[in-house]
Protein: TetR/AcrR family transcriptional regulator
Organism: Actinomadura fulvescens
Amino acid sequence: MECLVDLGWSRTSTTEVARRAGVSRGAQQHHYPTKMVLVAASLEHLLEAQRIAYETAFAILPPERRNVEGALDLLWEVFRGRPAKALMELAVAARTDEELRPLCRDLNERILQVILETFERLFPSTTLPDDFVPTMLRGIFAMFVGLSVQNALDDDADGHQAAVLAQVKSVARLIIPAPGVAGPGTGPDTGTGTGPQAAAPPPDDTA
């Protein structure tokens, strides 16, 4: 991951990985005979590490931030982090690398699946249509990818990315309101809501 972020795909080599890891070339090749085998293992590690880091970070948020706005803030932090930059480097490089492309062909879908599974754990009580959530998260994912590319270039020097995130959170708050707030379609006369409900408590450490 460090090599991908610091050097890019073209300059990442198993020799440099071994040097940074403090192991011999022989030991590295014993576990990962080729660069592609090493990359495949790295992908699995990065995806799982991202999921665990996100859920853990959400679980320790103060109660007033355990909502969809807090979740989006954390997701944006994930997209700006070094593991996400490593995954982005692989995705971009795979466009023109015939050997890397098959390995990364479903990378976006796998990341989306992690985001969807995490969303369902964090917000299990929503009444959103089944086909709405995946499409909504796909749109957010695509937007955050674009924002993260720009952020890697300018670190949001002019605040444009923060402004976009604020607008997205405003819309998300209407779709998934905080605890005790009526969602769309909730009628005061009936006392029953047809709109999405608030986030449930965060998952425990074993999630």
